[in-house]
Design a protein that fits this description.
- By secondary structure, the chain is of the alpha+beta class.
- The chain has 2 domains: about 180 residues, Beta Polymerase, domain 2 (2-Layer Sandwich), CATH 3.30.460.10; about 150 residues, cca-adding enzyme, domain 2 (Orthogonal Bundle), CATH 1.10.3090.10.
- The structure holds adenosine-5'-triphosphate and magnesium ion.
- Adenosine-5'-triphosphate binds next to helix 9.
Length: about 450
């Protein structure tokens, strides 16, 4: 009954008057209710059956329209988080910056958000200033609002499209559909204000433009260069989440190139400074990003630890050399270099502890691959992170940092067994024993 009514109300096309959204029928946009995931459809239908408004919104609608498979589904509703929770047995309220509800549907998790309102433009309303920091960054935005408010506080017009699976219509408040057709990423509202409210939007602009093949509207791209330093005010954990999204989007190479083109890589993320300003490291990093992009697009899992290990490796090499040159023995020097590099990163980019562990394991294996005599190679094979360390070694070989023969040796060693494997072992280096003795006197070490 309610469904029928909603279909009647939204099924027709309404021309958009001033401030009124366009209601676009399926004939024009081509998205059918079967195109969205089962879970998101059932979530919307359940909410609607309970008398609430509900839509699939944001990235999923945008991606479907662009012919991409959505990564996940977000639902927007006028039901409060408590009300949403009561509609679904398998649901829980998650509260960080604002409360959302995670609804489990089979193996899917649908993120359900209550329509949010504005807190107004920065400085436009005396009472709102309390919610922003000195630079205008919004610290709290958990005010509920109308559907229209909710559309206005989204970042880009292509992200403010609301799909109703029941009527198969799209509600479009900001001409997002037209922008998508014209391949333009346009900010809702004044770009400078929106970047000030949330500097992460600059990174989102780059990521979404790269992923969808859109051009950032000049109005939105122009201020980025001068405002890029605002990213320094963003909490490190949020920056890490966004960087991870960017690097695992399947379009990392394009994103990184675009970040450079927008002048966004300087001074804001040490990680990106590192990547883009080391010509020697560039080949290695680009190979790593290309391989990550391929894996993501093939639907294969990728390891964030591996990714960050590659991005920071050149930095480690430089530091390692410097520490060895000051007389430290190679292995302790490597560990000092690793900690040094990760400490610098931690100030701005909160790499999670588990990922830091993975990164260190991968790096620490690298000098062990050089040892190809005696029992040591067998021990390396047994390491829990051997596979990641080996893939990392192959990347180093591909980029020309180490001999390709070393990578091949490990490929063969891994694939053989018994006598064939043993026959591969190299004789111990004649000066090995001498070298070990010399290593005890740090100042005497000149090379390894
Ligand atoms: P993807 O899922 O591909 O990362 P997305 O656009 O869906 O892209 P989410 O982080 O899932 O990104 O956000 C869902 C929606 O919430 C967005 O489409 C947008 O409408 C809104 N949104 C997300 N982040 C912001 C932001 N920083 N400012 C304003 N709106 C945002
Ligand atoms: Mg999303």
């Amino acid at each position: 009954m309610i469904r029928k009514m909603i279909t009647r109300v939204f099924g027709r096309k309404t021309p958009a008057g001033p401030g009124e959204p366009a209601v676009i029928g399926v004939g024009k946009h081509g998205i059918h209710r079967d195109d969205i995931s089962n879970g998101s459809r059932r979530t919307v239908e359940t909410l609607q059956q309970q008398g609430y408004k509900a839509y699939v919104v944001g990235g999923a609608v945008r991606d479907l329209l662009a012919g991409l498979t959505p990564k996940d589904y977000d639902v927007a509703t006028n039901a409060t988080p408590e009300q949403v929770r009561h509609c679904f047995r398998r649901s829980r309220i998650i509260g960080r910056r604002f409360q959302i509800v995670h609804v489990s549907m089979g193996s899917e998790i649908i993120e359900v958000t209550t329509f949010r309102g504005h807190h107004g433009e920065v400085g436009s309303h005396a009472g709102n200033k309390a919610h922003t920091d000195d630079q205008g960054r919004v610290l709290r935005d958990n005010v509920f609002g109308s559907e229209k408010d909710d559309a206005a506080r989204r970042d880009f017009t292509v992200n403010a499209l609301y799909f109703d699976p029941t009527s198969e219509t799209i509600i479009d408040y900001h001409h997002g559909l037209a922008d998508l057709k014209q391949k333009t990423l346009r900010m809702i509202g004044d770009p400078k204000t929106r970047y000030r409210e949330d500097p992460v939007r600059m990174l989102r602009a780059v990521r979404l433009a790269a992923k969808l093949g859109l051009t950032i509207d000049p109005e939105a791209s122009r201020p980025i260069r001068e405002m890029s330093e605002l990213i320094e005010n963003v909490p490190p954990s949020r920056l890490f989440d966004e960087m991870l999204k960017l690097l695992t989007s399947g379009y990392a190479v394009k994103c990184v190139q675009q970040l450079r083109a927008e002048g966004l890589h300087h001074g804001l993320l040490p990680l990106l400074d590192v990547i883009l300003d080391q010509p020697l490291g560039e080949r290695f990093v680009m190979l790593a990003l290309e391989s990550t992009d391929r894996r993501v697009r093939d639907g294969k899992p990728i390891s964030p630890g591996f990714l960050f290990a590659t991005l920071l490796w050149n930095e480690v090499l430089t530091k390692w050399d410097a520490i060895k040159a000051s007389g430290e023995r190679p292995i302790p020097a490597l560990f000092l270099a690793m900690d040094g590099v990760l400490d610098v990163q931690a100030e701005k980019l909160a790499i999670t502890r588990r990922i830091v562990g993975d990164i260190k394991d991968i790096w620490a294996l690298q000098p062990r691959f050089e040892q190809r005599s005696g029992k040591r190679p067998y021990g390396v094979l047994e390491q829990p992170r051997f596979r990641a360390g080996y893939d990392f070694l192959l990347l180093r070989a591909d980029s020309g940092e180490v001999e390709s023969e070393l990578g091949q040796w490990w490929t063969d060693f891994m694939n053989r067994d018994g006598d064939a494997r043993a026959a591969m072992l190299l004789p111990p280096k004649p000066d090995e024993a001498k070298k070990r003795r010399r290593r005890r006197k740090p100042v005497a070490v000149t090379e390894e």
